[in-house]
Input
Amino acid sequence: MQRPPRRSAARGARRNRASNPARFLTSRFSIAAVAAALLAACALVGTEERPAPGGIYREALVGQPLSLNPLIHPNDRIARDVGQLVYGSLVRVVDGTSIAGDIARDWVTAPNGLTYTFRLRPDLRWHDAHLVTSADVLATIALLQSPSYTGPREVAEVWRGVRGEAPDPTTVVFHLAQPFAPFIEACSFPILPRHLFGDDGSANLLEHPSSFFPIGSGPYRVRSVDESGLDLVRNDTYPVAHPLLDEIQFRYFENAASAEKAVEDGAVDGFASSARPTMATQNGTAPVLAVHEAPLFGTQMVLFLGGESAIVGDRAVRLAIERGIDRRALVDGPLAWVGVAAYSPVPAYSWAYSPDVERPPDPAQAARLLDDAGWVGGPVRTRAGRELRVELNTMTDEQSQAVGGIIAGQLAPLGFRVIIQPLEALDLYRERLAAHRFDLVLANVSLGSSDPDPSWMWHSSQRGDGLNFAGYASPVADDLMARARADLDPTRRRTELASFQQLWLDDVPSVVLASPLLFYETSSSIRGVRLGTLVDPSARFQHVDEWYVRTQRVPVLGR
Output
């Protein structure tokens, strides 16, 4: 039997296409969809999500600034915050210990420590497009050296002994009369534009228009300023770093409670405070805020002991007070979750800090010291008919008074009668600290510098109108501080400052109690926030170039 002829597969396919075109097209589209899905999957495997430029960050600030010029108001928190973002400086202090170039691309220190040569970035411009040159640096130095400069005394004292010269537009040379180890850190002051403030140091900084609408050279420039706050926009010509956020907006609030509510309501994206915030949620479930925290090592809560006090001027009494105070009870009590224990005038983050100063309280030793000094009896000790009675001045806020209460409670079993007298901050400074009329004063102190030099507060030369409120005077301590200031060798300097810290602890001019924590709550939409080591609250912006809102997918090679 003869077989029927075989039908060609190709002919059959053509007939099927012709007889059922819809079925054929559907099949083709299905194959194409699968292929597209496979390609998309391959694309996802070969890309990753990364931060992208764009977005706005809005932050609440409490109060109104005295000005927006951190050169004259370095202790104004808003001026410092704005200065961190708007102004450039020769160098920047990063994470408390590292020095990085900013306006200066590099620098050289002469072996004798008397000459510093800075090379400036040739392409850096002010926000109004003028070039930043060495003349701007010398003009700012002239402002610091002027007799009319109204900023901090310790800043003026550093620069009045410095001679500057500008061999060319991108080179600045400083000549010092004697070696000064903290000098490179002192070069982190904001540089002001010469074409606005002049070059002879005669500008009235307190009333100058540019002190209220600053023109800087930093990563962000001021777009607008009014009574409700100010808006900053990214400086796209800034060559040092490349921030991702388009804008940073600051809004002023009357108090911390209203600022906190604005964050919770979503009116702003962030708020920095010394109080631990509560975690806000959305619909009672997912947290909408991230809380970042870090110790403010450049701020210390100090119990100043009056060196001119009839009772506390006795070293045995001062040592008994120090031996009787339990810092752990403070940070577990009224400072719980808002402070960390501190022990030395050199902050714990510093490379010069000596952990040997950390010793536990010893009430038994405190009692023996008082016995040996002739303070006897109880419950309140007496000597020659006089009670061991001291007045403890605190600020009027609840936390300060609570800490004062704990201290009084720790000293009472030792035989002290402690009278707590709260005062407003200005009165506390004028009537007690600056006047050197006190037994005990509890106050927060800003160290003002990341360098471990303790001279500004504890050298005997600062007893008059300086910051040595306790009246500490020790020739040995003065010599150790002076040697450490002039020594450019970090190893020797660490040894000298360790010896100073031990001597300071033995002399007990005051008692360092704690450093506060900074709490920084930000919207969960603001990513990449990293605080690092903080010397002061404005340092929270030291890594602002890493913050972002938007992302994009970018190809990744080798996957």
